[in-house]
Amino acid sequence: MNALAIDGNSLSLADVAHVAAGGRAVLAESARPAMEASCDWVERAARGELLEAGEPMAVYGVNTGYGSLARVRIPPADAARLSWNLIRSHAAGVGEPCAIPVVRAMMLLRANALAKGASGCRPLLVETLLAMLDAGVHPVVPSQGSCGSSGDLAPLAHLALVVFRAPEGEPEASGLAEYQGKVMTGAEAMALAGIERLVPGPKDGLAMCNGAQLTTAFAALAAWESAQLVHDAEIVAAMSWEALRGVTRALHPAVHALRPYRGAVDCAADLRALLAGSTLVDSVPGKVQDAYSVRCTPQILGAVRDGVRFAAEQIGVELNSATDNPLILLDADDANKAFSAGLFHGEPVGMAADHLKLALTELAALAERRIYRLTTGHLSGRLPPALVHGDRPNMGLMVPQTTAAALVAECRSLCFPSTADSLPTCEDQEDHVAMSTTSARGAAEIAVNARSVLAIELLASANALWYRLDEPGSKLGVGPASALAAVESVLGGRGGEAPADDIAKLEVALRSGVFREAVRQAVGELTEVLGA
């Protein structure tokens, strides 16, 4: 794939996932004029050349202090020091470092926001960020310490420490960076990669730190993964539906036309396609309906689908938004082109991430309920209790079900809407903050847990289908048949004696899309989760 050209307006979730995984990006030539014009205006303001009522124009963060110190004027000679001291003072994060894909996504998102041309930054700043991505210089960014307003201040400052160097006479600092598998000072990493660190311009420090890019990096990657998990959940649900010899009348299109939520309609259509050709479904005489965890799968997974799509749409807006403060609007009639506003506030992304947490938690909870039915003798339609096969003296999949229950409980504890919480900061100037970074980190954690629960259901449904296939005349639907063959390929047969090993292998295969690809080749494309 060619390098992605960023212009501040056309980034997608797929682009973010691509660059997070190691893809390249460059600055689009079309973005340069607006960036250069806004940078020129900021530099003139910093030099005191722009006047208002006969006095040098006050431009927040360019020739004034920050936050509650916005009324303090800064002389032109100190503009670079102002930016540098902001970066140094704000690099105050704690906790485990963010994973490299998250850091790469954050760097891309900050570069794209600056490329929009409303931040007063030179193109060289964006080019430096993209050169770091290309060379694999990844700043060490602590995962905790941001309230999401004024953006992700501390995490972005840790990034900025690597990008910038101290003006003459100021104490040096360069943070830490990972380069070629080793953690070293940011200065060492940049030197080894042959990338020059920049002395910050008049607004560079503020422009680098203002914005919810860590929030959005976590949220964007979680939303992209969630869309894949929805299809995985449908595939595994179809396998469990067959193993439990479920009734498919609940999937009839005429039924869903009477309550046409898009997610439910699409989920039911996918399940019908996956189960086509099965002799196991609708095979129990006199059975007219199933438990909710089977019969209501379109309603529950459908709501998950709709929630994931909502979150992705919100995050998609953020990918191509200016999040700086102040914004430089050169086409405004005012002489002062710098507009202070609140576009850095993480609430829109945070609330979307909170909804994503809820959706993913329900995806995992539904899967766990089916695992319970599959492993509970009197609920499973005469499957062996705990799916113990033959005379092996073990507990079957009883404890994996317990693991799934523990994971769902953890998801529920992470599901508290972080954006409903707020603590004032900055001497009460920032008196309502988003806590969006916590929301987005939680969504990423829940996505990992949900994948683990799906891996356990995949193992349970596979074991149940192997048992069903020993019954004369049994034939699987086209989707479960292709997925079961993929399970056997991943496990090298029907699995080993240690469930943890099998679960780990299935998790890796889920992450890499093995089962989605197997089903696509057999069934065709499932209905799109994120598209129109």
Question: Would you write up a description of this structure?
Answer:
It is a single chain. This protein has 532 residues and is mainly alpha-helical. The protein has 2 domains: 4-211, Fumarase C, Chain B, domain 1; 218-323 and 341-420 and 435-523, Fumarase C, Chain A, domain 2 (Up-down Bundle). It is 53% helix and 6% strand. It has 19 helices and 11 strands. The strands form 5 sheets. It has a 3-stranded antiparallel sheet. Strands 1-2 form a two-stranded parallel sheet. The two termini are 25 Å apart. The mean pLDDT is 93.
Protein traits:
single chain; 532 residues; mainly alpha; Fumarase C, Chain B, domain 1; Fumarase C, Chain A, domain 2; three-stranded antiparallel β-sheet; two-stranded parallel ribbon; 19 helices; 6% strand
The amount of helix comes to 40-55%
**Shape assignment:** elongated
| Radius of gyration, in angstroms, nearest whole number | 27 Å
The named CATH superfamily of the largest domain = Fumarase/aspartase (Central domain)
What is the compact description of this entry?
The protein is mainly alpha-helical.
Question: How is this fold's topology laid out?
Answer:
Elements lengths: L3 E3 L6 H8 L4 E3 L4 H15 L4 E2 L2 E2 L22 H12 L3 E4 L2 H16 L7 H13 L2 E2 L2 E3 L8 H11 L12 E4 L2 E4 H8 L10 H6 L3 H31 L9 H5 L4 H14 L16 H4 L1 H23 L7 E2 L9 E2 L7 H28 L23 H17 L21 H34 L8 H14 L7 H14 L1 H10 L9
Parallel strand pairs: 1-2
Antiparallel strand pairs: 3-4, 5-7, 6-8, 8-9, 10-11
Helix pairs in contact: 1-4, 1-9, 3-6, 4-5, 4-9, 9-11, 9-13, 9-14, 9-16, 9-17, 11-13, 13-14, 14-15, 14-16, 15-16, 16-18, 17-19
